[in-house]
Amino acid sequence: MKPKDPDCIFCKIVDGEIPSAKVYESDSVLAFLDIAPVNQGHALVLPKGHYPTMMDIPSELGVELMEALSKVGKAVMEATGADGLNLMQNNYEAAGQLVHHVHFHLIPRHSDDGLKL
Ligand code: 5GP
Ligand code: ZN
Q1: DSSP-based three-state secondary structure for 86
Q2: pTM for the full model?
Q3: Fold of 9-109
C-alpha cells in the first residue's frame, strides 16, 4: 500500500479525484503539466505515494523517478522545441514548497526566454 494523505491535492490527482494533464505514468510515478506554468511545457514528476520531501523518498523509488525525469525531460523539450531544461525541487516552506507531496519541476528553456528562476 502506498502512503496517502487524504488532504493532499497531489494524492487526489494520483487517485483521479482531481483532473490533470498527464504526460507520463508508471507503476509508482506520475507526471503532469503544472497548472501555473512558468514556461510552456512546465511539468511535475512525482512518486504516486505521499512522501512530503525529497529526503523521505525510499531509495528503491530512485531509479524509477530518474527514468521518469529523463523521459519527461526529453518529451517536454521536444514538444516545445526548447534549447535547455531546468530541474527544480523545493523542500519545506522556507525553500518555497507549497504542495507537501514531493515533486520535481521540469521547465523547458529557450535561450531568449528571459526567465529568472
Ligand atoms: P512547489 O512550490 O510546492 O514546489 O510547487 C507546487 C506546484 O504545484 C506549483 O508550481 C503549482 O502551480 C502546482 N500546482 C498546485 N496545484 C496544482 C493542481 O491542482 N494541478 C496542477 N497541475 N498543478 C498544481
Ligand atoms: Zn500526497
Answers
A1: strand
A2: 0.98
A3: HIT family, subunit A (3.30.428)
pLDDT tens, per residue, the chain with 117 residues: 899 999 999 999 999 999 999 999 999 999 999 999 999 999 999 999 999 999 999 999 999 999 999 999 999 999 999 999 999 999 999 999 999 999 999 999 999 999 999
- Nearest ligand 1 atom to alpha carbon 96: 2
Domain ranges of the chain: 9-109
List the residue whose alpha carbon is closest to atom 12 of ligand 1. Answer: 36
DSSP conformation letters of 8-42: -HHHHHHTTSS---EEEE-SSEEEEE-SS-SSTT-
